[in-house]
Amino acid sequence: MRIFVDTSFWIAELRHQDTNHAKAIEIRKVLPEDAELYINNLVLYETVTVSSLRAGRAKAVAFGAQLFEFIDHGKLRSAIIDESRERAIWRTFKGIVRKDISFVDCSILAMIQEYRIDTLLSFDKDFKPFQQPYKFKLNAG
């Protein structure tokens, strides 16, 4: 099972005050041990930035270090959004008429297609309309 983990899930897991914290912890507990977790550099940057704003700089640094440790030890697979992927994401972004989808969210949709990811852990409801064309299951939201 391939699972992309979105910023909203990471933040809910990190912040006890987040309305989705308990749900994130429960979902994390039932993930299969052999699940392949994915992230990309844009989501990593967004996650560290948002965690700094919502949980404070010290927690963001510790959490960022934990994410990099997961990547280094193969517990989290990271893809770099390079120039060629960036252009493909840009085409996706331009082609979507909805105003509430971000460039970072489009990078997630691109990775779902490229890596044939079947599950997205996200509390971001903006992904719901994209489930069918991109063929993934929105697990958290």
Please describe what this structure looks like.
The mean pLDDT is 92. The protein has one domain: 5'-nuclease (Rossmann fold), CATH 3.40.50.1010. The protein has seven helices and five strands. Helix 7 links the parallel strand 4 and strand 5. It is α/β, with parallel strands linked by helices and 141 residues long. Helix 5 crosses helix 6.
The helix fraction, in percent, is 55-70%
| Architecture per CATH nomenclature, i.e. the level-2 architecture | 3-Layer(aba) Sandwich
Average pLDDT level: 92
Shape: globular
- Low-confidence segments, ≥5 residues, pLDDT <50? none
CATH superfamily: 5'-nuclease
Number of domain units:
1
Separation of the first and last Cα atoms: 18 Å
Task: Report the total helices.
Answer: 7
CATH class: Alpha Beta
Write the topology of this structure.
Layout: E1 2-5, H1 7-14, H2 21-30, E2 36-40, H3 41-55, H4 57-72, E3 77-79, H5 83-95, H6 103-114, E4 119-121, H7 131-134, E5 137-138
Parallel strand pairs: 1-2, 1-4, 2-3, 4-5
Helix pairs in contact: 1-2, 1-3, 3-4, 5-6
